[in-house]
Amino acid sequence: MPPSKETETMSTTTTHLQPKPIPALYTVYILRSQPRHASLYIGSTPNPPRRLSQHNGLAKGGAYRTSKKSLRPWDMVCLVSGFPSMIAALKFEWALNNPHKSLLIPADKRAEAVKGLGRRKTGHLKRSRKSLVGVMEALRMLLAVKSFGRWGLRVHFFEEEVWRVWERGGKKDDGELQVEVVTDFGGPRPPQGVGVDGVGLEADGDDDDDDDDDAQDEKKHGIYALPLDYMPIKEYVAKGQAILEFERQGNCVVCQEAMEGVRGLYAICPNTGCEAVGHLDCWSRCLLKQEAKREGSGGGDEILPVKGECPKCQSQVLWRDMMKELTLRTRGQADVDKLLKRKRTRAAAKAKAKGKEKADEKGTNAGEGNSRRKREVKTTPQPMMVEDSEASEDSEFLDIAYL
């Protein structure tokens, strides 16, 4: 039986999917209602300021559960960042919303979560009612799972009360949870001149006033201080481009074998001043050996490391940062061009405008010169005719000179 048109379309679409770089930011967030603190909502987004505006009805979008006016406004009290893709964030979001169903959570923990839950007519368990303590416990259990714990995720807290609930739960841990925790209790409120996208609105005037931009960045707090683009790794990306463009990669920093130009997957040390380059698998084996040595074990079945030390500069490197630069270099050339040429675009536009003004001036002067030259040609006397061949060549030269 020949394949249907729908099947052919699906297969064609699948073959044209292009791999994307690790996103600059993708988060799983927790909302809490200001009027009713018992109401919580869990979602995911690459742009927390814009998503919060949607939930509060300030922009189109949002979710049905957050659309009730009696529950608005909502606060983004906590979020987890560092996911390598949208799919990874969606998996984490689903598990955090359904800890009683997720197979990533140990069976005994799931059994505790199932207690007291009724069943629907279909036989499936009802979703448990969220509480802040329950969400924090589920968050701890998920971050302790190896498949999530080795991604190098960060937990951000924007309300001190929520952070204290998280800290109280840490007393029950057995020390296995190793996650970076960031607190910012300055208040997730947008600074002056910030729109729903979380970026500053451009004002009329000089766009090159970097001091004003830096001063405004310092005033940002909470979710509005999160970087939504690749700007934090701009120097790292520029270093990688320069090393490979001018073929300064040399030998692998681990195995000492020669590396061929831009062929192969090469990872670069993210530390400033260090240009250590190596094969991807060599970096992975080196950092995994360091982890096993620190833990005093013979090594497990892990494939991806979390962190370690660069063999050249002996400074700490994070695997997530190295992979973000590598995927951006190999899969996101358009993002790289935008990142490295952002400031130069303004200067180029000004230079182009100045060049246009000069061209206009030259055109005006040239027009005046041509009209003057035409008047001179009309009043110029005709040259004398000479029979000598050499003189005739001179006369042709004179004709050109007169013109």
Automatic annotation (TrEMBL):
GO terms for biological process: double-strand break repair via homologous recombination. Its cofactor is a divalent metal cation. Forms a heterodimer with SLX4. Signal peptide: none annotated. Residues 43-62, 184-217, 346-403 are annotated as: Disordered. This is GIY-YIG domain-containing protein. CDD domains: GIY-YIG_SLX1. Coiled coil: none annotated. It is found in: Nucleus. The keyword rRNA-binding does not apply.
